[in-house]
What does this fold into?
Amino acid sequence: MRRLKFVSILVLTVLVLSSSMQVVQSQITDVYFAAVYEMEWSPSDESTDPEVWVSIHRSDGTVTNIQVTDTSEDESDPSIAIAPNGNIIVAWEVVGLSVYYAVYDRWGNIIKTPTVLSSQ
Ligand SMILES: [Ca+2]
Ligand SMILES: [Ca+2]
It folds into this structure.
C-alpha cells in the first residue's frame, strides 16, 4: 500500500510538472523522493521568467516546495541528486552561459546558496 502511494505520487508529479524536470528517489527513510523543475512564475514579483523549484516528498505525506532561484534571468535544464546523508544538490543552467548549484538539507533548509559552478 505504501509503495502504491509512492508510485502514485511519483507518477502524478511527473505528469503535473513542466517538461524540464527530474525526480530522484531517496535512500533516506523519511524522504520518498525529491523533484526539481522549472516554473515560469515567481510569487515575489509575479514575473514570468523561468525559476528553479524543488519539492521534497516525505514518507509522512508532507511536501516542502522550495523556490531555488528568484531572478530576472532564464534558468533552465535543472537536475537534482540526493547525497547519502540526505542533502539535496540542485544544479541548473542560466541563459546558456553559466551553471549554478545549491544545496539543501533533507528538511529544505539551505546549506549552500546558488553559486556559480562554471561559466563561459
Ligand atoms: Ca529567473
Ligand atoms: Ca523572475
Observations:
- Helices lie at 2-16.
- The pocket of calcium ion (ligand 2) is lined by residues 42, 47, 49, 51, 71-72 (CB under 6 Å).
- The chain has one domain: 2-119.
- DSSP finds one helix and eight strands in the chain.
